[in-house]
Amino acid sequence: MNVGVRQACRLVTAYRGNLLSLTARSARTMSTEEKPGPVESTIREKLSQHFQPSHLDVINESYMHCVPPGSETHFKVVVVSDMFDNEAIIKRHRMVNGVLQEELEGPVHALSIMAKTPKQWEDSGGKVSKSPACRGGMGQ
């Protein structure tokens, strides 16, 4: 069977997604045996130190993409901090990108950012939107 690379990535991603669903594993909840990897730990540490957030989620979404198991290349961060008061969304994202510049130039391929004030977080009910499935690359 001759399968293109993009199609193979989509199949692997779907397969992994199904396995993760079947085992009730969630990107947001780790079992006691699972430890965050070094990149995730560094992201968490840097954002905590810089923003002193009232809420912080660092979610490794690499498993949703066509990467080897255990990769740390795709992340979603949810940062709730008073430092975002009176700042436009683009400025908040630039602030987060600035703190994580080294990771973004290295191992991190994609970063989704939710940067909210404590009031915005409270008004949203503390909800984080689910990320879309990987489409397997450009040109889809």
Short descriptors:
140 residues, alpha+beta, GMP Synthetase, Chain A, domain 3, 3-stranded mixed beta sheet, 5 helices, 38% helix, globular, BolA/IbaG_stress_morph_reg, BolA-like protein 1, BolA-like_sf, BolA
Helix content: 25-40%
Strand content: 5-15%
- What Rg do the Cα atoms give? 16 Å
Q: Indicate the overall shape.
A: globular
Tally the structural domains.
Answer: 1
Task: Describe the protein in words.
This is BolA-like protein 1. One of its GO terms (cellular component) is iron-sulfur cluster assembly complex. It comes from Branchiostoma floridae (Florida lancelet). Belongs to the BolA/IbaG family. This protein starts with a helix and ends in a 17-residue tail after the last helix. It has a single domain, classed as BolA-like (GMP Synthetase, Chain A, domain 3, 2-Layer Sandwich). It is built from five helices and three strands, in the order ααββααβα. The chain has a three-stranded mixed beta sheet. It has helices at 5-22, 38-51, 89-99, 101-104, 118-123, and strands spanning 55-60, 74-80, 110-116. It has 140 residues and is α+β, with helices and mostly antiparallel strands. Helix content is 38%, strand content 14%.
